[in-house]
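@channel sequence for tomorrow's demo:
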Amino acid sequence: MNKQGLALTQQQVQKLSPLQIQTIKLIELPVQDLEQRVRQELEENPVLDDTPDPETPQEEQKEISIESLQDDYIPDYKTKVNNWGKDPRPEYNTFSVKTGFREAMIDQLGFRNLSQHEKEVAQFLIGSLDDDGYLRRDLESIVDDLAFRAGIESDREEVERMLALIQTFDPAGVGARDLRECLLIQLRSATQTPETVNARRILEECFSEFTGKHFQKILSRLSISEDELKAAMKRISRLNPSPGGQIDDSYNDVAEQIIPDFVLKLDDEGGVTFDMPRFNIPEIRVNKKYADMLVKAEGGSDREKKEAAAFVKEKLDSAKWFVEALKQRYNTLSKTMQALLDYQHDFFLSGDDRDLRPMILEDIAKITGFDISTISRVVGSKYIDTPYGVYPLKYFFSEGLVNKSGEEVSTRELKKVLQEIVDAEDKHKPLTDEQLVEELAKKGYNVARRTIAKYRDQLGIPLARLRKEL
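C-alpha cells (generated this afternoon):
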C-alpha cells in the first residue's frame, strides 16, 4: 500500500522545463536587473549576439521570429527580442527609493579606523539589528552568537564598544536597545538648546510619566513651567522612533535608483494605458555565423566534430529558451498590468486612494489565467510611474469590507478616513476607539471597535490618552 502511494506521488510530480524555469526567474526581475541578466547571458553564451548582422538587411531581421527556431544542430534563422519599441535607447526616468539602512551602516563603518577583528564584530552587530534599527538582543547573547555562528572570539566590553560606535552613525538613533535609548541618542547628538536639554531630562528622569502622559507629575518633578514642557514635548515629537526607516519616512538621504517597469499614460477621453520602458536592455539574436564557424570548422576527427556539434546544440537550445523566456516575461507582465489597470481604472484616473477597489492576488489571477504565484512574482518588485507618484504594484492590493450602502470598500480607503479623523481631532480631548467607531459610522463605515484598534496600530496611531496634548 505504501509502495503504491509512493509511486502515485512520484507520478504526480510535475517537472519544470528549462523554458519554464527561465521564465519564472526572469518574471521576478525588475527592469534594471533584467539588463544585467541579459548582458550576463550574452557573455556566457557565444551563440547570442547583440550587434546587428551587417550582411542581413534590416527589413529581413524584423520579419524573422522565434518560431523559426528548429531542433536541428544548425538552424537557419536569426531572431531579435524587441518588445520595447523602435528606439533602442529611449529616454527613461529614475526615481529615488530608500535603500536598506544596514548597507548605509556598512558604508559608514568603512570610514572608521578599526582593526579587521573590530570590523567583523561591528558588521555582525549591524546584521543583528531589526528592520526598525534596534538591537533587541542582549549583549551576552551577541557574544555567544559571534563565537558559535561566526567563529569570532569577543567579549561584552568589545561588543559594547562597537555598539557605542554604531550608535554614532546616521540615521541618529540606530543601534538603540529600546525607545528611550533611541530618543536619547538623537537628543545627545543634537544642538543643546533649552528645549533639547529639558527633553533629555524628561526621558532620563521621567520616562514612565512621559509614556503615560502624566504631565503634572513631570512639571512637579523637574520644576519647569508649562511652556517649557510644551517646548520639550514638541522637540521629542520631532524625533524618529524608527531609525531603520521601515516605518518613518524621515531618512531619505541614502537612496538607490529604481526605474519603473511601467509608465501610466492618460488620454483626454478618460482612457488609461501604459508603456513598458526598455531601459538599456539590448536586442539579442542568435549569431548563426558563429554557429556555422563552429560546426563547419575544417580539421579534427569525427569525434571532435560531434563534440563541437553537441556544444553548439546545447548553446542553441539555451539561446532558444532564454529568448523565448524574455518574450513570455514581456507578455506576462503586460497582461498582468493591463488587468490591474482595468480593475483599478478609477484610481489610475484620479490618483485618489478612495477610488482603490479591494483587490487580492486571486482577482488578477482569475482575469489573466495565470497562477497566483505568477501574479505574486510580477507585483513583488515592480513599479509604475504615474502622474501622482511612483507606486509599487503591491500597493494596489488590499482586502475589503462593506459600508452602509452595501458597497465594498478597500481597507486602505478606511485607513485613510481613520487617519483624517484622528488628524482633525481636538488633541486636548482625543477620540477613544469607541468614538472613532461612531465617527466612521457617520461617514458610512460600519466597523467594529477591535477592527479600529487593529487599523490604528497598523497606522502607528497611539491610544487616545497617549495622543493627548497640553
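heads up for whoever presents: The chain has three domains: 21-94+260-397, 101-237, 400-467.
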